[in-house]
Amino acid sequence: MRGSREILAPGATIGILGGGQLARMMGHAAARLGLNVHIYSPVADCPAAQIANLLITGEYDDAESIIKFASDCDVVTYEFENVPAVTAKAAASEAPLRPNARALDVAQDRLTEKSFLQAQLGIDVAGFEDIDNVFTLRRALKRLGYPGVLKTRRLGYDGKGQVIIRSEPDIDAAWEKLGGDTLPENALILEAFIPFTREISIIAARGLDGSCKAYPLTENTHENHILHTSLAPAPRDNGEAQKIAFKILDALDYVGVIGVEFFEMKTGKLLVNEIAPRVHNSGHWTQNGGCIDQFEQHIRAVAGWPLGSTVPNCRVKMTNLIGEAVNQWPALALQANTHIHLYGKKEVRAGRKMGHINQTS
Question: What is the C-alpha separation between 124 and 147, in angstroms, rounded?
């Protein structure tokens, strides 16, 4: 394996596990810096295939294919946190994996993640309980109170894999909705319902040399559990979110960009909702903020380059184009200060992220 602290020169190859829109936008950023991108994806017709120097198709549990893929790369990164552990280990045996496998292990399991944040780092999170059957669910609800949010520990995103339990009669239906007695042991977690005043996030990065930088706080709104808009810089930023993000980055010996989502309480107290060890939807605004965007920042970090400026020169509102909303592009193209980013997905489906716009002011 190549040296884990090697700084990559233009012409080097970055391997990306995953071929969605995040990989596509990382690929664009790498190309600007003269770096090549190899994509590994189970799907041949993926958004990143359109910009990749090389596309390898294969399943994530195919260790032999992963090893071959990584052996042709100078460094390997990933676009989503649900890369199987066996995949990460196989890739790391052939090339530096940035962020490291520990970041994946922590972020892809909600119980592991919350235990890491609360017990190891002393960071505030919502109350939670490990759930292995309907009886422990009932006991946990008595301790945490109603309403509660029952979630799968793995593979949940954009509201998938979760259900709110508002009162005792909802318990059995919620249990069955998420799989009931067919679930493997310890597949669920119960979280206390948080009466937050707003949802915010921060995008931060840590370089190969251990230096950290953060973008301004971002204020987010969701529709149907999917991120709808992000506004940055957000009002009322006391710097606490940045401190928490840096603490997480250092504890994980992290290299790359991370997204940290928070609930802000009426008192101003912040609770970490989740961490995402990758570039993040709420950081898309950085593409038109007049600073080094999150995608180039991630490429810089994993390549060992110095981190770039995170100070924007304007305010940006990012709006996701979900499903049929992407067909508004002709009208959007007429609007001043509106920057369109489309992902090259051929099939429009309800709830599918097809692109986004950034409106500057």
Answer: 19
In angstroms, rounded to a whole number, what is the distance separating the alpha carbons of residues 97 and 15?
A: 9
Residues 60-87 have pLDDT tens digits of 989 999 999 999 999 999 998 888 888 8
Q: Are 317 and 230 in contact (CB under 8 A)?
A: yes
DSSP class of residue 349 equals: -
Full DSSP string of 126-168: --EEEESSHHHHHHHHHHH-SSEEEEESSS--TTTTEEEE-SG
- Helix residue spans in the chain (DSSP H): 21-32, 63-71, 85-92, 101-107, 110-115, 134-144, 171-177, 240-251, 294-303, 329-333
For the whole model, what pTM was predicted? Answer: 0.94
Domains of the chain and any CATH numbers? 13-97 (3.40.50.20), 127-192 (3.30.1490.20), 198-360 (3.30.470.20)
Q: For residue range 169-225, what is the model confidence (pLDDT) as tens digits?
A: 999 999 999 887 777 777 899 999 999 999 999 999 999 999 999 999 999 999 988
Are the C-beta atoms of 54 and 38 separated by less than 8 Å?
Answer: yes
- Would you give the end-to-end CA distance of the chain in angstroms? 47
| Paired sense of beta strands 316-322 and 226-232, if any | antiparallel
Contact 52, 71 (CB under 8 A): no
CB 206 within 8 A of CB 256: yes
